[in-house]
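Human:
Care to share another protein and its fold?

Assistant:
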Amino acid sequence: FPAWSPDGEAIAYMYGNTGEVSIVRRAAAGWSDRIVVGDTLGAPRWSPVREEIAATHRTGIRIFDISNGERRSIPLPDGIRAWALHWPEDGRLLYFLGTSDSHRGIWSVPASGGVPTPRMDFGDTTPGFTHIHVHNGFVYFTTREVSSDIWLLEF
């Protein structure tokens, strides 16, 4: 899934095949700048308040600073994989669907780094998520099996 920057001047997207995936930043005018090459698993998401892009990775969440090229990693608990990443308006937390062999749930983690916090555990019975969005204290999400419904969770 591509993601537009908050100012609408650029788009970030994944490019590649199963062996190597790059996150590309492309200006609306058409030039591109490759940000990272690696085994990124999830679509990039722009910070709403900083020149940063976050993406899920097999070992956690990676954050890339567009202005200076610095990269940082936020590790996840053993066995948890992050999917459906979302960065709310204030930029302080990242929300994601965390999955393991036996559980699915919604998690949050400080964007500056820290320990991920489970927000809701659906056990092993919840269908896969296709999208997650956080706005004004609510988490909105859809599921694959019930694509016409939007679910709401208040924090």
Notes: The mean pLDDT is 78. The radius of gyration is 15 Å. Residues 77 and 128 are 20 Å apart (CA to CA).
